[in-house]
Design brief:
This protein is 55% helix and 18% strand. By secondary structure, it is of the alpha+beta class. The chain has 4 domains: 105 residues, no CATH class; 88 residues, 2-Layer Sandwich (Beta-Lactamase), CATH 3.30.450.20; 74 residues; 139 residues, Heat Shock Protein 90 (2-Layer Sandwich), CATH 3.30.565. The strands form 3 sheets. Strands 2-1-5-4-3 form a 5-stranded antiparallel beta sheet. Strand 3 and strand 4 form a beta hairpin. The mean pLDDT is 79.
Amino acid sequence: MTLRAKFLLFAIIIHGVLVALAWQVLRQNTVLFISAELLLLVSVVLTVHLYRGFVRPFQLIAAGTEAIKAKDFSTKFMPVNQREMDQLIEVYNHMIDELRQERITQHEKSFLLEHLIQASPAGILLLNFDGRIESVNPAAARMLQLPAPALVGQLPAALPGDWGPALSSLQPGHPQVVQLSGVQTYRAHTSHFLDRGFTRYFILLEELTQDLIRQEKQAYEKLIRMMSHEVNNSIGAVNSILQSFHYYAPQLADEDRADFTEALEVSVNRSTHLANFIANFANLVRLPPPTLRPVDVHELLKSTCRLLQVQSEKRHIQWHWELTPGPLFVALDGQQLEQALLNIGKNALEAIGEDGNIWVRTTASPPTVVLENDGPGIPPEVQRHLFTPFYSTKRDGQGIGLTLIRDILLQHHFPFSLKTQPDCRTAFSIELTATE
């Protein structure tokens, strides 16, 4: 039974007794009966007033309780000119103001945090209690090269490529470095936080590619410049002396003159070869920023093919064209990209060796270039070092061809990849859309 029902029952019983007593008095004393009736009327009025005074606070308390249950922190009460009731209303209104302000603050923080996560350049993978991916921000989807819906629900260890093994062994405080195709380098580390008393884990992915390349170039640029300066100075002086020795050839005996002249030519040729060798390294560190202007990529590809036509015919290698209709204009540095395409084509010819095919494909939306060859695939142990400076699997390779390609494409902010596909063709893909 509610307190309200108990109060009404008590009032009814009391006034019923008073009515019965008044009826008994009526038989004995009329004046006393009238007095009793007046007293009964006053009691009824006081009871009604007390009822309203008691019930109204209960109604306010019930309304406030329902508002709190519904998480409606906008409902407030006006004072009713009752000291006790007004104190209760003041406390309730203050509590509601605090709760509303706390909710607004929490919503603002959650909104800001969500936008920060979405805009963060670092990839964030939030795991559920089962260790599966629960949410992915755009940076993580870009790094993993999979759309967010395809990642949600997966175990980190089941991710494709080098990501799975790296993330499966990830431990708090022990970050892992993941290198993809010898170009993109990432650092992955995991941590946790408490959510409603339970431990939740997340994985943070940071791209180190640009920082590592910058540090790498700073390390070898100074060395190459110093070597180039010293070697060129020495070669210039040596070649000058060797050229001067030609004047002494007529003074030698006929049987000695041929050997002397041949020795001078060999020495000059070797010095020139060494100068060219050093010049190739010097060109790597002197690569200027690209000058962007609209260039027809199809014309660059055809120009590259013409430059490699003689080598292709000697090796019996056929070029196959699958170009998107019409010209393909892209804002880029034509001279630099032509050099990159030339190096890619040379590498394809060398990879094939003899009797093979090269496929050249382009698309307009998005603008891309793909050069495929059917030579031997790239071994996994080589894949990770492809774009490492001075790394080469060729006997006389200098290891700067792919490095130059890498630097040209990175300066253009063009995403690219070099890998052997499931059909055993090796493809160099370039997306001609600048991405920061």
